[in-house]
Design goal:
- The protein is of the alpha+beta class.
- It folds into two domains: 16-162, Sandwich (Jelly Rolls); 169-277, Arc Repressor Mutant, subunit A, CATH 1.10.10.
- The protein is built from eleven helices and twelve strands.
- The protein has helices at residues 2-14, 103-106, 118-132, 137-156, 169-183, 191-198, 202-213, 217-235, 241-247, 253-264, 268-277, and strands spanning 16-27, 33-37, 42-49, 53-56, 59-61, 67-71, 77-80, 88-98, 101-102, 107-108, 112-114, 161-162.
- The longest helix is centred in the middle third of the chain and has 20 residues, at 137-156.
Length: 285
């Protein structure tokens, strides 16, 4: 089931939704202080100047210029000034959700990073702030795209560990459903079957699946079938398309061809010709 786990992770993270709730550049006031509170949102602090104190969970910090801190949702935090030379910083409050889960409940990253590309990160904050003051769809998209780039930058420059959210009923259900789909991919799979696997009403199962993976179960099943069909075409030049279609649980070759083109942009015959025309053939990956 290792391949299925990788597929689930890919689909899961593809459904990440981010939203900026507030972003600013400011110098904190002398009374800037809050102790032992748990926010319902994530925060980035990008320190430009000054001094102060932060506590994230059990760890205490005295941030310096060029450091970028992540203060995650649901984690106890404190902050305070320590003298008259208070922080000047870019900051934002944001959500980063996959279904009903916070991104940073799924992966564990460092509390802060040393920013090597100061101007790059500063420009992303400037873009986020200026876009947040605009109106219309384009402004919202620009604001959230800047946030997404900041999240990516932070993750790429941080040590990342994947948490195992064993207490997440949602993830346990998703894994049970996708494991069942992989096991039964060659067979006819109904929504009622999947609902029975996780003891949900079929209508609720569809909503649940769409919420967490961004698509209904049938769409996911069809995608997996076409991905498996592509793998089989690449792996062997001898099997007929009818054989491959049957192996991925689609017994109607005409429907298989229609579905294949819908998901890849090519008919199975075109895809097979492309594969066979490659020097040395494409290796299965």
């Amino acid at each position: 089931m290792e391949d299925n786990r990788k597929v689930l992770i890919k689909e899961f993270f593809a459904n990440l939704k981010v939203e900026v709730t507030q972003a600013e550049y400011s110098k904190v006031w002398p009374g800037w202080r809050d102790m032992d509170y748990i926010p319902g949102y994530n925060k980035f602090y990008f320190i430009c100047d000054g001094e102060g104190w932060l506590k994230i969970g059990d760890e205490e910090y005295y941030p310096k210029r060029g450091q970028m801190f992540l203060m995650p949702e649901g984690v106890m935090q404190s902050y305070s000034t320590i003298n008259s030379n208070t922080f000047t910083k870019y900051w934002c409050h944001f959500t980063a959700k996959i279904g009903d889960l916070n991104l940073f409940d799924i992966i564990k990253v460092q509390d802060y990073i040393e920013v090597k590309d100061y101007v790059y990160v500063e420009n992303l904050f400037k873009k986020m702030i200026s876009s947040g003051k605009g109106y219309g769809i384009a402004s919202v998209l620009k604001e959230n795209s800047a946030l997404l780039e900041l999240i990516i930058y932070f993750i790429e420059n941080s040590t990342v560990e994947r948490k195992v959210p064993v207490k997440s009923e949602s993830l346990m259900r998703l894994k049970a459903i996708t494991d069942y789909i992989e096991k039964k991919l060659k067979e006819n799979i109904t929504i009622e079957e999947l609902a029975q696997v996780v003891h949900l009403h079929p209508n609720y199962l569809i909503r649940f699946f769409r919420k967490h993976l961004g698509m209904p179960p049938i769409h996911y099943i069809n995608r997996r079938r076409i991905e498996e069909a592509k793998r089989l075409i690449i792996a062997s030049s001898d099997e007929t398309l009818a054989d491959i279609s049957s192996k991925v649980g689609i017994n109607d070759i005409y429907y298989f061809s229609k579905l294949f083109k819908e998901y890849t942009g090519f008919s199975p015959t075109q895809f097979k010709k492309m594969v066979n025309s490659q020097p040395g053939r494409i290796q299965n990956t």
